[in-house]
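Q: I have 294 residues here and want to know how they pack in 3D. Can you give me a structure?
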Amino acid sequence: MNQTVATYKDFSETACEVGEGPTYDTATGTTYWFDIPGKTLLEMSGKGEETIHTLPFAASLLAVIDDQSQLIATENGLFRRTVADGSLTLIKELEPDKPENRSNDGRVHPSGALWIGTMGWQSADNAGAIYHYYKGELRTLFDGITVPNAICFTADGATGYFTDSPARKVMKVALDPATGLPVATPTVFLDEAASDRGFADGAVVDADGNFWCARWDGGCVQGFDPSGVCFETIELPTDRVTCPAFTGRDLSRMIVTSAYIGLDDDQMRAQPDAGETFLLEARFRGKADPRVLI
């Protein structure tokens, strides 16, 4: 049964043009997320203190390397960010021959490998790809992608998910748990051609293997069991919901980013919370994001 609930509160009232890439650092109790076109990294301490870091370029993903440094995925490649002073050092270029592209959705596999998707700034057809980065080596997993999203993994590392949002199909692929590399051809997990809840955007898998997906132009987060049955819809006060992540010491809460890009004046008046980040009391616990091995 698909249970519809509406239990949220504001996590951050800072409005993001395109909020993306939420993640929780279990070691410090800090939550991070981005405003991609705003070129900012937002940080919320465990005490509820918010800091906004200005970046020299657009970024969309943060992963912990160690206690002193983080990896961020940007329009100019993968960078090491020093936590103490915010300094950035290039680790790996992604698409130096495609200056019109930027990073988008991604997540760290339990092996420590990073999956990161790219796309055109104007969402040009088939301009992007999904890459696998591990210990200095970058591989192309899937190319001809328009808007890569919903990249996430089961806790055992044996299954990965992803989508090209305009295609309206969420894909499922068997992986080598030791490397995060595909070992089979992807199959369709969710065929959403007839969905009335917009497009699949960012997603995360909880500790029980359920798939939680933000709905761009759908105004909600939906939970699907491992067989693809939708069992919960969490309504939110804005149409453009972008990405969920589990947060809190016991990973029993969920933060969800959103966007106001592309909304006209009437829509903005009707959705004053557009672009804000929301906090949900989840019925399922998440799993900690692994550290990335660079």
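Q: Anything worth noting?
A: The longest helix spans residues 265-270. The first strand starts at residue 3 and ends at 5.
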